[in-house]
Amino acid sequence: MSTFDALSVVFDLDGTLVDSEPNYYEAGRLTLAEHGVPDFSWAEHERYVGISTRETIADWRERYGLRTSVEDLLEVKNGHYLRLARASTQVYPEMRRFVELLAAEGVPMAVASGSSPEAIEAILTGTRLDAHLRAVVSAEEVPRGKPAPDVFLEAARRLGTDPADCVVLEDAVPGAAAAHAAGMRCIAIPYVAAQAGAPEFATAALLLRGGQREFTARAAYEWLTRSARPV
């Protein structure tokens, strides 16, 4: 009997499994520049880490007074992002190793992301992570994106598991809040170091304040072993 018989693991994608934020930033910068907003900075981009693309663009329209529709802006940004993602998306090496350790134990795994279905598919296929996943959920497939729990609850439903038996890996404040709202334990790996002290991260079962620099597959695997719920 596996140590992990009652466990499922749900991964956020961007900034957690893969280092895609630079591509999202560049796609956003290009999109805004084409619509009369120059000099979109990385610091400005950081406020949207963990928020769905659609909700990000809706905020842009208000913040920058854009007249173009959300749908049209979404199409432009996704076009830029898909081109960049297909050219170069890096999986965090320790995350790939962690996925492989869990796969060897037969642990059901899913991705629940704020990105579009097309962007998720492009990344998972290009990085070959899709081979290890039983379910993939985009925020565009549920009523509300993070910090609402919808994407995580849908991932649990598709995996056929109880939310209480799921552990989420997340890099962003909205995702940590969503995991807590879904009744799931969370391993928090903050992408934006300055946000590590946010109260949402304080709800995590395990908080790695150093982000990806602090994460190791073996340590995370051993933590899961120690904290596995009895079956």
Automatic annotation (TrEMBL):
Keyword Hydrolase: yes
An annotated Gene Ontology molecular function: hydrolase activity
Pfam families, per database record: Hydrolase (PF00702)
Protein keywords: Hydrolase
InterPro entries named among the record's database cross-references: HAD-like_sf, HAD-SF_hydro_IA, HAD_sf, PGP-like_dom2
Gene3D superfamilies: HAD superfamily/HAD-like, Putative phosphatase, domain 2
PANTHER family: 2-DEOXYGLUCOSE-6-PHOSPHATE PHOSPHATASE 2, PSEUDOURIDINE-5'-PHOSPHATASE
Protein name stated in the entry: HAD family hydrolase
Organism: Streptomyces pratens
